[in-house]
Amino acid sequence: MFLQTSPAPAGGTTNAEAMKSMGFDHLIHHFDFLGWIVFVVLVVMSFSSWYFIIANAIRNAMVRGRADKVINGFWSNGSTQDAIRELEAQPKGEPFSKIALDAASAVAHHQQASAGGGRLAESLSRSEFIDRALRQAVARESLRLEGGLTLLATVGSSAPFIGLLGTVWGIYHALISISASGNASMEAVAGPVGEALIMTAFGLFTAIPAVLAYNFFNRSNRLTYAQFDEFAHDLHDFFATGARVEGK
Length: 248
Fold this sequence. Notes:
single chain, mainly alpha, 9 helices, 0% strand
């Protein structure tokens, strides 16, 4: 016994053929002005977020990979001048060396001011001047680590809603199509509904990597900030008293 299917109506299409109009190709060829705006915005968001995801991953890996080497190299060096020269040889984007160099520069500047009888030495002690320089250096390097995180947070929070706007617009087109054709057949609604579903998925695919990356980099940066603070406290003790306070 064989199952038989009803033939398609004359001049019409089968449901299977109508479903083919729900693909991405149909979406591209039937965009209107608002549809193109939503699509382009999501594409720009996606490329921008992936750029910062890759850039931050590389930068964080380099910072974390060099941190112990730079810190241990500074403390293990028997000569402060040699240690400073090694710090100056570090890459431009290495933050721990820049924090230590700022502290050393603050010491030299305060010594020159004290020797010249300037008002700087009277208004700020050596310890206070070093502390101010270290705070500024830590704040500056912390801010550099946060580059791109605002964009990732923006993409993660707004991309689903932008995709939802495309979804609402696609459903609106489906209703207009039903009204114009006078029927609610699959042929009339498949294309607009397909556009709506694709825009929803595109918004989620754009947002999810951005949210995951934002949370990961926030966690990674907090660990680095803790290292900044610990190193800065040790540097302050060293440059203010001439010796590192052990056992902290």
